[in-house]
Amino acid sequence: IMGDSIFNCCYVPPHPPGEEEPRRSKRTEIMASHSSNISSDKRFLIFFDFDETIVDETSDDMVVQAAPGQHLPEWLKDTYQPGRYNEYMQRVLAYLAEQGVTESDIRSIIEKIPATPGMLTLFQFLRTRPPKDFEVVLVSDANTFFIESWLRRTGARQLFHRIFANPATFNKDGRLVMKPFHSHDCQRCPDNMCKQVVVRDYVARRTQERGRPYQRVFYVGDGANDFCPALSLGPRDVAFPRRDFPMHRLITETHEAMPGEFKAVTVPWVSGEEVVQRLRKLVAE
């Protein structure tokens, strides 16, 4: 994981001992503090995004199918503000509840979202590796209810040691209530989540707990908000951007505009099977 750079909008310098860290996300801290039950002998750490990386759609878009007529009213769509998507989705979920949409309605829609090509093959590869090979973490701007529902339906929940996402639970009125994951200072990312902060916090915490770094860190993603965490990867690490999606384009543009700024090896993929091929070579080294 690299040090300062002009792109490290979210780099937080170490704070003096005994003082509180003013910017560290409390939620990241809580979730990371549970990581001590993961064995500390894993060779590799692999991060996954969810929407359009694990599943071949955006789960927030799919849930709209539960609305009357399978679309949202214009007045509701008009409330969206750039960078404040999380707040917009909170209003969408409230609207769905008002229209009588139930937990099982939402779950059944989410469970039907198809996996991206080759993704279940990639999961099977990770699942059948020796236990010391991979620590698997999910980092998503979707919500925990959508993610957990889909992973449980496909039998993939046990593969993930940690899930970092916007927390969502049903309240007593049957409404899915979603909260922002954390707050941060990154200018590039939406208000409720900077994945680079999450990745940095997690890697730093785990490296400390383990007493040694991972041999390599991998990041599998597709979106512009996956570019930010991939910037923190080092030259031995590998970024797996979905080919021709925003993450891939941003990496390509950065290589052209600022050679050396993006440090990780880049392996674009169309199918998860291409990720398997590269991982197979790397674990054999």
Automatic annotation (TrEMBL):
GO terms for molecular function: metal ion binding; phosphatase activity. Keywords: Hydrolase, Magnesium, Metal-binding. The active site is at residues 49, 51. Transmembrane segments: none annotated. Pfam families: Put_Phosphatase (PF06888). It comes from the Eukaryota. SUPFAM superfamilies: HAD-like. The keyword Zinc-finger does not apply. Substrate binds at residues 60, 141. Mg(2+) binds at residues 49, 51, 222. The keyword Disulfide bond does not apply. InterPro entries: HAD-like_sf, HAD_hydro_PyrdxlP_Pase-like, HAD_sf, Pase_PHOSPHO-typ. Its cofactor is Mg(2+). PANTHER family: PHOSPHATASE, ORPHAN 1, 2 (PTHR20889), PHOSPHOETHANOLAMINE_PHOSPHOCHOLINE PHOSPHATASE (PTHR20889:SF2). Belongs to the HAD-like hydrolase superfamily. PHOSPHO family. This is Phosphoethanolamine/phosphocholine phosphatase 1.
